[in-house]
Amino acid sequence: MKVVTGVVGNDIHVVANRLIDLSLRARGYDVYNLGVNTHLQEFFDAVVETGAEVLMISSLNGEAEGWGREVRLLKSKYKSLDDVIMMIGGNLTVGSGNAEDIVARYKNYGFDIVCHQMDLNTGLDMLQDLLEARGLVSEEAIA
Amino acid sequence: MSEANEKLLIDVGSTYFKVASPEGLEQHFRDFNSDIFDDLMNKCGDTVQRFDKNDVHICSSANGGLSTLIIGVTRSFSLKYATNIAFNSGINIIDTVLYQDLEDYSVPGELIDVVIIVGGANSHKGLFSDDLFAYLKQLTYSNIVFTGCEHDAEYMNSNIDNLVVLPNIIDDRLHIVEEHLKEYLTNLYQQDIEGKEDIKHLYDITGNQIFSTPYIVNRALPTIESRFSVANPFILLDIGGATTDIHYSKDLVEENIVTENEFDRLVFKRLGVYKSKQSLILAAQGNEFVYELLMHLKVTENIFQEQSDKATKILMQLAIFLVLYKMSHHRQSYINLKLLTINSIVLTGGITKVLTVEDIETIIVFFYRKILTSDHKPTVVLDDNYDIWTLGARV
Ligand code: B12
Predict the structure, then answer these.
(1) Cβ of B124 under 8 Å from any chain A Cβ?
(2) Rg of chain B's alpha carbons, rounded to an integer?
(3) Which of A8, A48, A75 to mutate to test the interface with B (most CBs of B within 10 A)?
(4) CATH number at residue A9
(5) Residue B384 falls inside a structural domain
(6) Domains in chain B, number
(7) Is residue A101 within 8 angstroms of chain B, CB to CB?
(8) Residue A136 above 70 pLDDT?
């Protein structure tokens, strides 16, 4: 199972990105880590080049909102991204906000899993559940 | 006299050739009615005879370079990497085609020297299908190379005749791998020069490999300060009869793709002042600022129809402007240089025999004011004795 990950926009908070990389590998995923400072088009392009099943975007500095609004339009320009599982986590708003509203908004932007200020392992468990539900993995194995 | 000075250096250009011996530099216009070898021996046979074959070094820019069309699957990776490698190898890019939008592209009518197909990390497969093969059938090309994901190589090979397969230019971390494609393209360029009947004949007088002129010039750049007082960073423009080359240091490029060379180069195939004069004029007429530039130079568009020294001079000035324009942010091109940080502009090639420093400065000032709205004024360095070329040839 291939995952493209990275931190969106001009965001340079790198710690979570390193942890995500390590945790995904520990769970058996093939990781393509684009690192910090990654633009939306680069994420989509990396999915095309790798054939990744999952796109996992991080945002820590509050930029996510702006990028989120661009997702649908940009994704519609690609002809091979319909089945990609799209996931986003970190600090998904500027300042504090109501988690429920935030999740609904990002789902509307086109994300399948939204993890606002959520612990990483909880988020990765949600991914595992979705993969199983879609019949993409069995309960034991990822890779 | 040092040993290096015992060499005879010959540069065969599209319009004239230069011969540098320890005694000095000779320059002759080419006689297009006779072949290069005969022409050369006619004009400088005595000089050539005095040297041992192994002391004669020849380079040529007479062929004007190769052209490529690149087909890739994304702008951020495959197309970007292949484009970067192609122009570092001195190849002219006709177009870059995003595979998923293949049907939106028009089919280039001209003969393409090499088609490059690229896409996919090695963990992926099945990126291309029949629509690509149908598109390729409409093209006319001399060479075709696949340098994408390894699992697709066999499938591509069985569907495309005479396909050359190279290792992927994208590695497992989605970083660029330059060497294989670069070597392939550089060799093609080399073969193209050697393949010219005219040039082959020149091996009668040299025991050394005949290189392309841009390669030789590029090789001189790291040591340019030994001959000229240039302030870093600088760009070098080689404006000749058939092509214009621009060499620039990597610091000037905003997009940082890590490569080994300190200096890159770009060749504009159809921006020359003699052989490709018509396309230079076309490029000028299509540029929205040229009319104003002509006014600034106190001439009218009629100058394009004239055959005079004055007209040649104006064309050379336009060539400088057009090259800078192509490199600026004003025009989204393959590469945009940080032109505001340049401290020197070095000029070499035929242009240095015609233009004075003042003629060039007025263009540069116009360019910076008009296009970059800045009073920045890099110093102009004229290599009017082909020192850069001799420096590169002696390395
Ligand atoms: C260290 C830090 C910095 C360092 C970053 C150094 C570096 N290169 O990494 C520096 C000083 C450079 C910095 C700069 C800025 N920062 Co700062 N920074 C922090 C700080 C203190 C810690 C971040 C960190 O590393 N945490 C440790 C990691 C492990 O935790 P994490 O990032 O939260 O990630 C966890 C979860 O969010 C989750 N997660 C993350 N991504 C994803 C993705 C998925 C899919 C899932 C499931 C989970 C998940 O998993 C991780 C582990 O559990 C936080 C405050 C805080 N305490 O969180 C502010 C903070 C992130 N920064 C903030 C801001 C505003 C900035 C600046 C804009 C400040 C400024 N005005 O200049 C700049 C932005 C720079 C830029 N271009 O991005 C704000 C963001 C506010 C917002 N979103 O509303 C914060 C929250 C501080 C605050 N409370 O105001 N910052």
Answers:
(1) yes
(2) 22
(3) A48
(4) 3.40.50.280
(5) yes
(6) 3
(7) no
(8) yes
Residue at A86 is within a domain: no
- Chain B residues whose beta carbon lies within 8 Å of the beta carbon of residue A78: 100
List the CATH number of the domain containing B90: 3.40.50
Residue of minimum CA distance from atom 79 in ligand 1: A61
Question: For ligand 1, what atom is nearest to the CA of residue A88?
Answer: 45
What the block records as the tokens of A38 is 């990654």
Q: How far is the CA of A62 from the centre of ligand 1 (A)?
A: 9
Of A33, A51, A78, the CB nearest to B124: A51
Q: Do A49 and B174 touch (CB under 8 A)?
A: yes
Asked if residue A97 belongs to a domain, the reply is no
Q: A117 is in which domain, residue-wise?
A: 2-81+102-133
Q: How far apart are CA B6 and CA A22, in angstroms?
A: 61
Which pair of structure tokens corresponds to residue B86?
Answer: 């192609």
DSSP E strand boundaries for B33-192: 56-60, 67-72, 92-98, 112-117, 141-146, 163-165
CATH number at residue B270: 3.30.420
- Those residues whose C-beta lies under 8 Å from the C-beta of residue A110, and which sit 6 or more positions away, are A71, A72, A75, A86
Report in angstroms the alpha-carbon separations of A93 from A9, A19, A64, A102.
Answer: 14, 21, 7, 8
Residue A87 lies in a domain: no
**Structural domains counted in chain A:** 1
The CB of A126 under 6 Å from ligand 1? The reply is no
Q: Give pLDDT tens digits for A59-85.
A: 999 999 999 999 999 999 999 899 999
Is A8's pLDDT higher than 80?
yes
- pLDDT tens digits, one per residue of A49-66: 999 999 999 999 999 999
Report the distance separating Cα B91 and Cα B97, nearest Å.
Answer: 16
Structural domain containing residue B373: 223-388
Among B348, B343, B380, B346, smallest CA distance to B362 is for: B380
Separation of A14 CA from ligand 1 center, angstroms?
A: 8
**Looking at the structure, do residues B234 and B371 belong to the same domain, yes or no?**
yes
Check whether residue B324 and residue B239 sit in a common domain.
yes
**What is the pTM for the complete model shown?**
0.76
Q: Give A96→chain B minimum CA distance, Å.
A: 34
Whether B98 is in a domain gets the answer yes
Q: Which atom from ligand 1 is nearest to the alpha carbon of A7?
A: 41
Structure tokens at B282: 């076309």
Per-block average pLDDT, block size 10, for chain B (395 residues)?
64 80 82 83 90 89 76 95 82 87 88 95 96 96 97 97 97 93 88 73 87 80 82 83 75 61 58 64 85 93 86 89 81 70 88 89 94 92 84 75
Question: Residue B32's closest CA among B7, B13, B57?
Answer: B13
Which atom number of ligand 1 is nearest to the Cα of residue A87?
Answer: 45
Q: What is the pLDDT of residues A117-132, one digit of tens each?
A: 999 999 999 999 999 9
